[in-house]
User: Fold these one by one.
Assistant:
Number 1:
Amino acid sequence: MPIFSSMVRGKIYVGAIKPFFDILLAVFLTLLLVPLVLFLFLIVFIDLRRSPLFTQIRVGKDEKLFTLYKLRSMGMDGDEKTVSTIGKLLRATSLDEVPQIINVLKGDMSFIGPRPLLPEYLPYYNKDEVKRHYVKPGITGWAQVQGRNDIDWGLRMLKDVFYVDNISIGLDLKILLLTFRELLKGDKTPYKSDPTIKFSDYASKR
């Protein structure tokens, strides 16, 4: 019964092993990165003269809403034209995502999974795309290491569904290694894709 055994291993990994290592890694990184986070908070506050912490409602596992944390990079919420120089650097290096370790500690997110998106997109998913909510969203994921800002919504969704259908410790380790590679490379074209194209706009035209 190889298929049954594989399913059992998958459920054990997703239900117990993966959450355990998420919390373990989150605690370790929290202790390790406290000085860096405090420094970044100070830099962002000096740059924007606003609270360094940006919060937004996103959709998690089983379509449960939660508050996502990021370092603020825009002078005005939601206006890409007001992204500061510091904000562009934070995005290019993914340092703006560091506060999401709090989301991992709270159990809202995992380190690896589909990126959490806005609640307004919920009516637009097709029967396959809704699978992205079968698992916890992640700080990094299969779509992020396969193109980041260079892939369109359709391909991004296909990669999210692939991850959910094939989730395993092997795939997570591969994504983790590829994430380190992407971080070392940096995102040299953080605005190559049109930031005004929302998933709802894309989905309504297909």
Number 2:
Amino acid sequence: MTTTEPHPLPVTTTPPGPPLPPGILAACDGSDGSLWALHRAMSEAERYALPLYVLGVVNPSPGGYPPGMAELVQESIERLSSSMADGLRRAVSTVERARRAPFAGERLSLHVALGQVVEVLLAATVGQHTLVIGTRGNGGFSRLLLGSVSTAAVHHAACPVLVVPAPVAGAGG
């Protein structure tokens, strides 16, 4: 899928907190796999008349910060969050363009959360109808395996998980 202009939806920066009301949760990182998953998540939300939550996670500190360093990198964290928010808007626009129709479900909201990706994603599954997530791989043998985030979701999510594979090349409609 190719990208297009960002969707005008506002994005909520979601601190860890109470779960969202039941809906379809789509994990989105801007990869092709997450766009295919978002496409399917829109269909699922429309089919079940549920809200659609598109979640992007920013891990501002993969290795942790030394004492006193967190305040110095706050501007970078804000830029990362803003970039992820823009990426979520673009993802929704791209998928709606590919579907040739805007999302017609109950409600669509975009969320950016800070933290370790797997932890945040698993916490967000509490009380949800379904998590829709794509697979990721770098070609070769890795295409036969689920990515680490998808694997963690399948084994530890608090709701059913729908893993969306990449479309088969040359397969018709």
